[in-house]
């Protein structure tokens, strides 16, 4: 499987009872109809760390069913325990996901040998294609060159999502990789265009929950060698990325979806809903994207 294009790192629609099935199906169809190339559930913006096993399985089942093969579905099965990752990965396989994303273990500081063993053991005990997920700012553990060289020898590992925010890291992966069937994906939305210009295959973008057509426009303009247009679109997402920092991830992202007509509920505690004191700033920022995104009247507009 070669992964390309803009893959949305989906938020998880929630209600007081768990996964909001209707809202999940509505969001899946919005994203697919707008043209995304894949759906990435149970990532950082998908609050994987706060969901129960039952909630994870329910979400994956709904998304796979609603996507119905129109785009691939990737699901985060990563955790600290190797045994637990194997269990969840095999459960996801039964539900029909196309590949799993496995974040590096967090909280504990592993040696390179332990990290390699973690991924090798998962690969030996599961059948799904696997995407490595590197986000060292959150896990305090990075997939370095020596680890990467070992892991790309495993054919079951088909790609890496790098959210380090460092283009030199992307360059290292590109120079080290010798497999044509291996995908390198940028996970930092601010670097979609520069990463594409370096040679990555696509982006796993949380901003595309809301700025779907904008992020897709960056990718399409790049393919058509319309670099000025791609640069304008890349720079245009900065204002939205700015408001995402007004509260803890994914609070503002979820609130923004509600304001454009796709209510997905509050984030899981301990993350709080974004304060109403930021409503005017958020609404003003979202209004800048109404034309390109084809947004209807924002919920916050008078």
From TrEMBL:
GO MF term list: 4-hydroxy-tetrahydrodipicolinate synthase activity; N-acetylneuraminate lyase activity
Entry EC no(s): 4.3.3.7
Top-tier EC class: lyase
Domain of life: Bacteria
CDD domains in UniProt: DHDPS-like
Reactions listed under catalytic activity: L-aspartate 4-semialdehyde + pyruvate = (2S,4S)-4-hydroxy-2,3,4,5-tetrahydrodipicolinate + H2O + H(+)
Keyword DNA damage set for record: no
Listed pathway(s): Amino-acid biosynthesis; L-lysine biosynthesis via DAP pathway; (S)-tetrahydrodipicolinate from L-aspartate: step 3/4
InterPro entries in alphabetical order: Aldolase_TIM, DapA, DapA-like, Schiff_base-form_aldolases_AS
PROSITE patterns linked: DHDPS_2
GO process annotations (BP): diaminopimelate biosynthetic process; lysine biosynthetic process via diaminopimelate; N-acetylneuraminate catabolic process
UniProt entry keywords in alphabetical sequence: Amino-acid biosynthesis, Diaminopimelate biosynthesis, Lyase, Lysine biosynthesis, Schiff base
Active site (catalytic residues): 133 (proton donor/acceptor), 161 (schiff-base intermediate with substrate)
Presence of keyword Lyase: yes
Binding residues annotated for pyruvate, in chain numbering: 204
SMART domains referenced in this protein's UniProt entry, alphabetically: DHDPS
NCBIfam families from the UniProt entry: dapA
Family, per entry: Belongs to the DapA family.
Protein name stated in the entry: 4-hydroxy-tetrahydrodipicolinate synthase
Organism, scientific name: Enterococcus avium ATCC 14025
């Amino acid at each position: 499987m070669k992964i390309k294009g803009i893959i949305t790192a989906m938020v998880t629609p929630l209600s007081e009872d768990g996964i909001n099935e209707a809202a999940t199906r509505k969001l899946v169809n919005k994203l697919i109809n707008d043209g995304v190339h894949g759906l990435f559930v149970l990532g950082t913006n998908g609050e994987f760390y706060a969901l129960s096993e039952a909630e994870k399985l329910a979400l994956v089942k709904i998304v796979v069913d609603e996507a119905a093969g129109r785009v691939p579905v990737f699901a985060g099965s990563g955790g600290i325990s190797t045994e637990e990752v194997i269990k969840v990965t095999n459960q996801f396989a039964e539900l029909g996901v196309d590949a799993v994303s496995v974040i590096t273990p967090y909280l504990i500081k592993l040696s390179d040998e332990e990290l390699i063993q973690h991924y090798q053991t998962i690969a030996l005990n599961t059948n799904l294609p696997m995407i490595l997920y590197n986000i060292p700012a959150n896990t305090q553990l990075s997939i370095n060159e020596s680890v990467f060289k070992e892991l790309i020898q495993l054919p079951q590992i088909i790609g890496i999502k790098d959210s380090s925010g460092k283009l030199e890291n992307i360059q290292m992966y590109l120079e080290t990789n010798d497999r044509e069937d291996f995908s390198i994906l940028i996970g930092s939305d601010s670097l979609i265009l520069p990463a594409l210009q370096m040679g990555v295959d696509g982006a796993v973008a949380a901003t595309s929950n809301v700025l779907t057509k904008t992020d897709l426009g960056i990718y399409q303009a790049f393919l058509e060698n319309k670099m000025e247009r791609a640069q304008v679109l890349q720079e245009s997402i900065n204002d939205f990325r700015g408001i995402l920092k007004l509260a803890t991830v994914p609070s503002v992202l979820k609130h923004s979806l509600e304001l454009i007509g796709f209510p997905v509920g509050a984030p899981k505690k301990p993350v709080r809903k974004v304060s109403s004191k930021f409503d005017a700033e958020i609404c003003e920022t979202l209004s800048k994207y109404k034309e390109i995104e084809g947004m209807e009247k924002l919920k916050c507009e008078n």
